[in-house]
Amino acid sequence: MKTPAASLHYYIGLMSGTSLDGVDAALVAIAPDTLPRLVATHAEPMPKALHALLMHLCHAEQVSFAELAEAETAFCELQANAVAMLLAQQGMLANQISAIGSHGQTIEHAPYGHHGGPAYTLQLDNPSLLAELTLCTVVADFRRRDLAAGGQAAPLAPAFHQALFGQEEGEQLILNLGGFANVTWLPSDRMQPVIGFDTGPANVLLDAWFAKHQGGRFDTDGAWAASGNINHPLLERLLEEPFFHQPPPRSTGRELFHLAWLERRLVGNETAADVQATLAELTAVSVAQGIQQLPLSHESATLISAGGGAHNAYLMCRLAYHLPNTIFKSPAAYGWPEDWIEAGAFAWLAHQRLCHQPGNLPSVTGACGSRVLGGIYAR
Questions:
Q1: Is the pLDDT assigned to residue 2 strictly greater than 50?
Q2: Based on the domain organization, do 177 and 326 belong to the same domain?
Q3: Lowest mean pLDDT among 5-9, 56-60, 184-188
Q4: Mean pLDDT of 78-89
Q5: Which helix (H) or strand (E) is 306 found in, with range?
Q6: What is the CATH number of the domain that holds 226?
Q7: Which end is more exposed in the chain, N or C (fewer Cβ atoms within 10 Å of the end residue's Cβ)?
Q8: In terms of domains, do 98 and 185 share one?
Q9: 176 neighbors 52 (Cβ within 8 angstroms)
């Protein structure tokens, strides 16, 4: 039986992650009693000037309001271009979109506060401008309501993972390898709470080290990392970071893991390729350690891998080594290719907001309860 057209709604999710490589736009169809369906996608590359400005804002100790305004406007124009391209690709009009879910660009994420100050998370965005540029209703500022409720405001994707994959039999693991890695555990007993948390860096250090020594944005297929050897003393020093030993809920960002953090742990005799191999090993080991903390009901588990890191052949090989009883599965088998789950999550979160339904999972973020996330900026 086909779903009546009147009950089918289209949303666009916009995501620009910590890799700062562009804006992902996902067109998602949502209807009652059906799983969210990915309809179309568009990736809008990040201009070099905006990339440089955002990187500066992420690491600068002081910034000006003028710099913030310049970056915010340029970022919103990039988002609007992504929406326009996606609509043109599908021959759709703005009034056919129920809402855009905009994550914004994370500039700083401090769920534990800073030097004893209050917890905060900052996503650069201007949903008012985005609504004007696209003529669509925009839902934005998803994270701070969870933070206000005592949560870490991240990760938010596990709620979408539950909606997308929770109908499958047995327990599921969903691993996102973006700038940072996070894992979601969907228990086979649906009465048990979902667990999800950041395990540590994924691409953020790999990309930064590659850019410094090879001059590109990322290490394709992990080829450069594969040419090096794992430096085990360095790996041990990296794994001493207290974050890796914190129990969930936990989340992190560039504030902790960045190039200077890495360089402070080098002794000076490492080759650049060996450091790259060691950074890939750091991601694989920290993911494996995180999964080992979960109350899995079986020794073997199915893991759905997503994010840009899922295309890194060397990294996936190291993950398979450290998780020998794990069956790796592509989300493409469910109609959701690796690169589009994060953007799809914010389309779904926009839908949740318009329907006045919660978007967070307290068992994941540590919030004191379920909350409706995001503010609405009407077209």
A1: no
A2: yes
A3: 5-9
A4: 98
A5: strand 301-306
A6: 3.30.420.40
A7: N
A8: no
A9: no
